[in-house]
Amino acid sequence: MYRLILQRLASIVGILLVVTIGTFVLIKLSPIDPVSMKFNLLGATPDPVVVAQIREQLGLNDPWWQQYLRWLGQIVQGDFGESILYALPVATILGGALPNTLGLVSLSLVIGIVVTIPLGMLSAKYQDSWIDHGVRLVTFLALAIPGFWVGLLLLYLFGVKLQLVSVTNTTGFSAYVLPAVTLALWICGLYIRRLRNAILEVSRQPFVQGARALGLPEWMVYTRYIFPHVGLMLLPMMGVTMGAMLGGSAVIETVFAIKGIGYMMVQGIMARDYVLMQGYIIWITMVFIVINIIIDVLSVWLNPKRRAAIKGGSYE
Amino acid sequence: MSRRKPYTLYVMLVLSALWIVFFLCAPYIAPFDPETTSVADRLQDISSTHLLGTDQLGRDVWSRILYGGKASLGIAFTIIGISGAIGIAIGGLAGFSTPHVDRWLSRLIDLVLGFPNMVIAIAFIGIMGPSITNVIISLCITKWAEYARITRGLVQIERHAEYITFARMSGASNLRILWRYILPNVLPPLVIVIIQHLGDAIILVASFSLIGIGVQPPDPEWGAILLSSRDFLQTAPWLLIYPGLAIFITVVLFNYIGDALRDALDVSR
């Protein structure tokens, strides 16, 4: 088990190298000139002599690999540079914003799971009945409706028509409910149908029919026989979903003006603040990798077969 | 699915064809120029002159939705077309070539699939600057890998089929076998996946425009029209409702056709 975790942690180094090189190359290719950027933001006309001086100071005239290694060295030490837009260390900005994003994503996951499980179970239990068709229609529509539009409609309905929430309030728990519901709707669209199909598939297995033949109560068949298998079937998909959610939360955060890391990134893009963008890319990659490692380890740890295989020394 | 003919599918196919043609004809139908501003007409409610009202710059929303549809559909088709072509080419190569090449290409495909596509797209647009071209490139960077993986799997099944052996015995070259024999067989399931992704592409592009990093003002696009709606929720709800409805209807049409075609051809998964 520890070996698996160590292996996954080692893969972080590789992925981080790919991501930093990719980011670095893109920035070198892009039309951004960091120095004149800074001047534009201050509203000053850059003096060519001063620009040349600053370029020399920042080491922008060094060979590209020296620049890359210096930057990489700073990142490893946790120094992500100073944001051009906010004139604050990027680590401070993103560190303050990350809890907002994680809070939003977790709240929507909780809402999504709480809605998905009963609906998926109902849909599977009453297969091909009107309930099943109704639930399938809802999931179909949930996937076809743009999330940001749902968000804006909710804001209009609860903020303007019913006056239940404040349109301008962006802090506190109540500000997170509407965006979380918006993201949760998408999770439901993705997972209700998958859960239904997984339950139907597992229910056909002999061990479930055996459990039913023994006369076990239905709740026991579900909790002891069906759900452990269904969970293991759906867990690996969660990694991809979490990645999409981190990206999607940037849109939802911007619509609801929640100051998460996606919101900060969009502000950074508007101001062409490349230091902030670099920081966002690396941070979100790290978050994504950590989530995926947790899911990987969980899906081995929760699966007795694979756990035994690792203990027995025959890894994978 | 059942034996009976999928009439609903035919109806939906005709409807979506009409829907697409309708927006392509935007320049002939639109009553106003989508970019002409008029301060006197700003934020007007729905009327017989302005069917869906006007926005904060006095531009006709109905005309902007028509032109915006042309842009939205065009961008989505371009993204799916380019990434589909690249994906099918690379996937076909991986599935049909030697195990060595296949191993490296598969590794590349897995690597790209491992990254969250929306995050990559936001990062790319952020650094290269917001524009239509960059939105298209940013989504193609990751999207092709999905088609490559599916194509590779399909080609690997087909390449061992008997008709391929016969083709080879009759002296057909590798390229001819790929193009004339394998491609027609793997294309139907791929087309279905591509149709299913069209709706996603429209939503993605619109969401980029909505947060200001996609299609830039004053160009009309469904997400770009929605961009200003948040500031005028109280005074001009029509700015919010109709562009969103246009996206919703389009995605419902495409997703329905994708699902129904899959059921009709009985392609598994």
TrEMBL record, chain A:
Keyword Transport: yes
One Pfam family per UniProt: BPD_transp_1_N
The keyword Amino-acid biosynthesis is annotated on this UniProt entry: no
Cell compartments where the protein resides: Cell membrane
CDD domains documented for this protein: TM_PBP2
Residue ranges annotated for the ABC transmembrane type-1 domain, each copy included: 98-299
Membrane topology classification: Multi-pass membrane protein
Keywords per UniProt: Cell membrane, Membrane, Transmembrane, Transmembrane helix, Transport
InterPro entries associated with the record: BPD_transp_1_N (IPR045621), MetI-like (IPR000515), MetI-like_sf (IPR035906)
Principal location: membrane
Spans through the membrane: 12-32, 102-122, 134-158, 173-192, 230-258, 280-302
Protein family (similarity comment): Belongs to the binding-protein-dependent transport system permease family.
Name assigned to this protein: ABC transporter permease
Organism this protein belongs to: Veillonella infantium
TrEMBL record, chain B:
UniProt keyword annotations, A-Z: Cell membrane, Membrane, Transmembrane, Transmembrane helix, Transport
Membrane spanning stretches: 7-30, 71-96, 236-257
Domain ABC transmembrane type-1: 69-258
Gene3D superfamilies registered for this protein in UniProt: MetI-like
One Pfam family linked to the record: BPD_transp_1
Subcellular location: Cell membrane
Superkingdom field: Bacteria
Membrane topology type: Multi-pass membrane protein
Main location: membrane
Record-stated family: Belongs to the binding-protein-dependent transport system permease family.
Cross-referenced PANTHER family: D,D-DIPEPTIDE TRANSPORT SYSTEM PERMEASE PROTEIN DDPC-RELATED (PTHR43386:SF1), OLIGOPEPTIDE TRANSPORT SYSTEM PERMEASE PROTEIN APPC (PTHR43386)
Protein name as it appears in the record: ABC transporter permease
